[in-house]
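Regression test attached.
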Amino acid sequence: MSQFEEQDYTSKFDIKLWIRALRFLKGCKKATIWFLIINTLAAIGVAITPMMNMIAIDRFAVEGTLDGIGYLILGFGALGFFIAWTFYKSIDLAAVLEVTVVHDMRMAAFKQLQKLSFSYYDTTPVGWIMTRLTSDAQRLGDVIAWNLVDMSFQIFIIIFAMVSMFILNVRMALIAIALMPIFFFVSFFFQKRMLKNQREVRKVNSKITGAYNEGITGAKTTKTLVRERKNFEEFDELTTSMKKTSIRAIRLSALYGPIIAFMGTASIALVIFTSEGAITENLITIGTLSVFISYITMLFQEIQQMAEVVLAMQSAQAAAERTITLIDTEEEIRDTDEVVEKYGTTFHPKYENWEKLVGNIKFEDVSFAYKTGEPVLKSFNLDVKAGEKIALVGPTGAGKSTIVNLLCRFYEPVSGEILIDEKDYKQRSQLWLHANIGYVLQNPHLFSGTIKENIRYGKLDATDEEIIEVAKKVNAYDFIMNLEKGFDTDVGEGGNRLSSGEKQLISFARAIIKNPQIFILDEATSNIDTETEKTIQQAIFNILKGRTSFIVAHRLSTIRSCDKILVIEDGKIAEMGSHRELMRQKGIYFNLYTNQFTQEEAQKLLNA
Amino acid sequence: MFKRMFLMLKPVRFKYSIAILAAFIAIILEQIRPLIIRFIIDHLLIRNDEVSPTYQRIVDFLGGLPHLRGNLWIALLLMLLVSGVHMIFIFIRQFLTQKSGEIVSRLQRNELYDHIQKLPYEYHVKAKTGDLIQRCTSDIDMVRRFLAGQAMGLFRISFAFIITFTIMLTLDMRLAFASIALAPIIVLFSYFFTKAIRKPTEEAEEREGEMSTMLQENLTGVRVVRAFAREDYEREKFREKSLAFKNASYKHMKYRAYYWSSSHAICDIQRVGVMVFGVYLVVQGEITVGTLIAFAAYINSIIWPIRELGRILVDQVRMKAAHDRMLEILAIEQEKDTKDAKEHDLNGDIIFDNVSFAYEGGKNVLKNLSFSVKKGETIAILGSTGSGKSSIMHLLLRLYDYQEGQIKINGLEISQIEKNYLRRKVGIVLQEPFLYSKNIMNNIKMAKDVVLEQEVYESTKIANAHDFIEKFNDKYDTLVGERGVTLSGGQKQRVAIARTLVKDSDILIFDDSLSAVDTHTDALIRAELKQKQEDTTTFIISQRITTLMDADRIFVMEHGRITNIGTHKELIETEGLYKRIWDIQSMLEDEEELEYEPV
């Protein structure tokens, strides 16, 4: 799991990554262009303001006249409203950019997630993915819309301030920016160190979160070991190191701002000093001087803020990288171009070309490994006729679920072939296969919504009558009708307002309404109490008639009536036959069965 | 609010006070720069000879006006000097406030962690981990940001206002009042905005919550989605949720756009008004041009910060909520010891006398329980979930207090024995033991203050863990826990057993702690135990008869009562739960009975 720790992928500013991120502005081209225009206008407005002050001073105050002051007021007023308007538009457009970019990015990631193979989900915690689509995407959107706004705004202001200064007086302008090289050097020096500190702080911070997590989840064990004091000492070490690292970071950032501001003042002093002669000889007006003072202050302020933007972008870089990596992750299982040509894609299927699935299944020399070097299935062979009921039993890790996963093409064989209706299933689309499979899991996963909606998940155009009918088929009708709102009862998040038995019944109904040719029950009844199991059992075996079905069972009493029972050990079929045949053999199955039987009986007695 | 801040800042009161002082001085110095520039323009560049009496003294000190005009650098150097000192104070302010924030944060983190560890066992059984961690991390962070940012901001804004306004008053009273004419409107405006934006904010948060829920369900249900070929349907559903969130957050930001632009307009009206009025006053000869330029600068440091007030008010409410949540945890009572509790030799018999016990608000789990255990005896307890067998062990460790009766170890009632001492001397292995994010060696060593490596190897050998540990690449240095390798349930239990064994326990408890170990290993471990820990009183709790049968005595528990006591031999002769279970197990040999009809 260590690869999912808070980490910074790269420390350098990654221009390529940001260009890739900026491509998400594609969804709002018009807004982006407007945004740039408005920001230019806003920058002009802000840059003009000191000029207006200059006019007020030179034209009126120094001259000592109020003639035409009306125009000045008008000008001021117009400028004020103009700036306010550009601000409004700028924020509004930035908001549009932000929400559009975040939404588009989220959709891109979600689409990819619907295609990614199970091997991806096996190694990636859900929480990790969630963060990529929520806070990381948000962060990236924020940075693109707001920090880049700031940046573009700042660049415009800097340019306009510079241009204005050069227009007013070239010599003074040159003097004003004389300190710039020193400024850049200082900034570079600080930036590098501040970034490093920032990373260190984040690292310690995630360690502290981890320590809290451990302290809280392990609290019970801690008590029995009387470890409170020792744990606290270790925690104190962490918080102390956090304090130290943070203070180092604080010292730098607290120094940086004042130093830059001081350089601004120094520039002003330099300008006044060198312009003394020109002013006393009236070559430069006092107003011009005051404009220069304003511009220099502005210049240094904006550049300092720009440095902050760069810092923010750097710290968002890790978020950007993770989200974009997710979007760019390639799925391991994909349909070939010819298959897509005929059957369509996941999101645009060509139903008209789909063949009907009969249900003959054949595993030919199938080998499989989740990790290279650790084979789970070795040259596995199996021939199943349409309509047969197959049970898979054996110890955990023997490969039962793997067989089912391969059959569903959640994974593909490393070597060998799986034939469905005499044709390698890779020659048809994943969607075609999935549309023909009924799948019931050990932990039935329901979605938020009503019972009706959950059943309808199996067949989106199912009528209410159909839904009621399947509910009756799986013996779920009675309990549903006993609920307050019947079929319109909200099942809660993940279905947690229902008991696990009830959830399982709904998930059966959901699979049955689909009317699939292949049925898979993956430990579907192991979480249900014996009473409920009996009710389901009866329902299931009626439904399975005429369909090819695979039953992975932990509780062996549930599979006695299967056509074939396969005992899987170490990725191979160790025994195969009907319940009766295998019991007579007195082999592995016999032992498993008797052991389990006694244990279950003992358990029953204990809990009676 | 101030009381709360005062309390939080108490540990850093000296630093924070200096920071406030620095903020105050910095703001005074900030105002001096425009004054110097004004002086330079009015008297040195424009050569106005009328200097106000206050300045006259400084001018004289520096050599008089003509000298200053001849040597402009003197005044400029003074300006730089003032600016430099100003920057030093800004540095002091920023550094000390943020440092104070960090110090307070560290104290809060430590206090919470320490407190949480000391909360009763019962609290941890019920605690919602995710929520708790959230409080310990993001809530503390929010408080820190407020103390280091907004709280000082409040001081800065007030100081800036007071000082700037005072200076303005000395320059020109009329212009000064004109400069703050719209301030109340701005404050009111930002206040109402703050209130108005709450609803769209909540709306956006709600939409985001719905979107996350949908996303999470899709991810955890990925198997269902694929198996039902519902990728496209899910995408549409997600698009709908994401769009709803998009629109809600856009609406929320639109409010901000309105606010920032219109408050900007108000501030601008204020600024322009002052400029125009100032020009008028200059033309009338009431004030100098320099004064006007100074006002042009001052107005900025008075009007813009006021806009920030509204935001500080919102953040203050959020900080308060975060702090309250922290206080809520801290208000929960810690586990306490009895007043006269002491250390007491536990080498002796254990006696339960008429003990009754109920978990808080529940029914009696143990009902008038009485039994005694001799020192060195091995006692096995058989019972179903909820029969009360684990509760007995919880009581022995004083993780809970019993309501009735007496429990005595070596003659002393355990409520008189110090909790920590008791727990150090009674070793327990929980059914679902927790391993810390350390390597295996340190996980085992942590059970006692000083542990020799030799002791670790001995105990892992007893626990049948040594061999599998040696098979790891890093052997005993293998990192386990959250960030390390994932051990199987059985491996975890065995490491935990080894950890408990390195303690020098007088009493050992295995609370269903062999459940994930296979029967063969289970037997090996018990055999080793019997040999090595002969003198230790041992309790083994299990639902598996084979685990129990070798014990000196077996207690059968049903519904909070002991219904049978005896050796294995005795119990299989007596009618009862134990015999019935045993009988089923012996049925193994009689396979005919198992072949009953298929459904």
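Expected vs. actual: identical. The radius of gyration of chain B is 38 Å.
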